[in-house]
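Hi,

I'm pasting everything inline rather than attaching a file, because the server keeps stripping attachments. The sequence lines come first, and each chain or strand is labelled.
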Amino acid sequence: MSVRVDVWTDINCPFCYLGKRRFEQALDEFPQRNDVTVVHRSFELDPNLAPDVSGSVAEHIAEKYGIPVDQARANERGIAAQAAEVGLAYLTDGRDFGSSFDMHRLLHHALAEKKQEDLLDALYAANFAENEALFGDRERLLDVAVRAGLDEDDARRVLDDPDAFADAVRRDEQEAAALGATGVPFFVFGGKYAVSGAQPAETFARALQLAWGDQLVPVGVEAADTCGPDGCEVPGTTD
Amino acid sequence: MSVRVDVWTDINCPFCYLGKRRFEQALDEFPQRNDVTVVHRSFELDPNLAPDVSGSVAEHIAEKYGIPVDQARANERGIAAQAAEVGLAYLTDGRDFGSSFDMHRLLHHALAEKKQEDLLDALYAANFAENEALFGDRERLLDVAVRAGLDEDDARRVLDDPDAFADAVRRDEQEAAALGATGVPFFVFGGKYAVSGAQPAETFARALQLAWGDQLVPVGVEAADTCGPDGCEVPGTTD
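And the predicted assembly:
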């Protein structure tokens, strides 16, 4: 059997970055990891941001939630400490914010190109571990896409067409809402087991085991028409 | 949410042809059909056939199972009557048999090209509804592949390389065995609900509903690190 894992994330979300790593730690130890398919789904923490708005994340957070900038910076240092524990680089200063809608569109394109994992890793690295600004800069985004192995012209075409994969992003967000997810990361294992947040690797390991271990439930009548190594059984014509 | 349906089939299997249609009848009526992903998996009814062996299916069946050829032909007429009930063309004479291994390899290639559904339909049509022989004839197989929308050169490359997708076929077969499937068609809905055989459309409808209706089961602690519309909560640093 195979297990599918759906992971709702936002590029703006530090705990998605950390949660991905913890999930991967569990996946690396999972005996049937080659039979696990991971699909990253879209979730915008702030879907109302205009595409051209960006700026310092600490100041933005301080303003948005009415906390001192120092506290927002302390938050960043707290997250950086957690990131360091799982071996992830995390810059505590200068991270920017902005709309992630185009990035999610590009992640859907990357899924079709089997490069989604690479693109998400590259986006997280660009956002959390590299000094250069990421948001509101199309050429920077294209650089990241190319680094992830996407064809530059294809990626440019996706970005140039605001409708490309836009519905796919919105469908993902509707599905997250329908599942009751109000924050990210949000993981669903085998369509059944939900893990909310950057939980310890052990939690992800348990969810993988649960999804894997589910026994099949037979549906329908027992004696239906099948073909097997001994031929096709046709009730009513052979006896 | 989305539901994945895995369907083990063989091109040699009349009930897979019928079962696919009955499943599609249920799928057409299913309100969330756009969120259902169908993946066709490999199952060879006779994995020991040499690639160049082929011949009349009625005579082959008669010989293999020690029944009169007339009875094998009567079987075919019985299946044709069932096929007619679901609007499928089915020739009762002249169907050939042979190894389906290369067809399964090509179906895996088609899956990557998003043409699997088209190729399987074209293979079934070629085998059950068209007079021309199908097995052991590479050019005929290429014709069918092109008709299904595959690039001819790509398809030829897959057929020319006996290793291409060979492991994928074998993995599918191992998984079917691990799931206890001894015949086909064999359907697994949402990794959980199994339907064996060409059951009535109502059975497939029920399996779709069951897979769709499964509620999420939360795993892990309640208060984990998440980011939401109101920011990222970092236990221990903000209070």
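Chain A has a mean pLDDT of 90.

If the labels don't parse on your end, tell me and I'll reformat.
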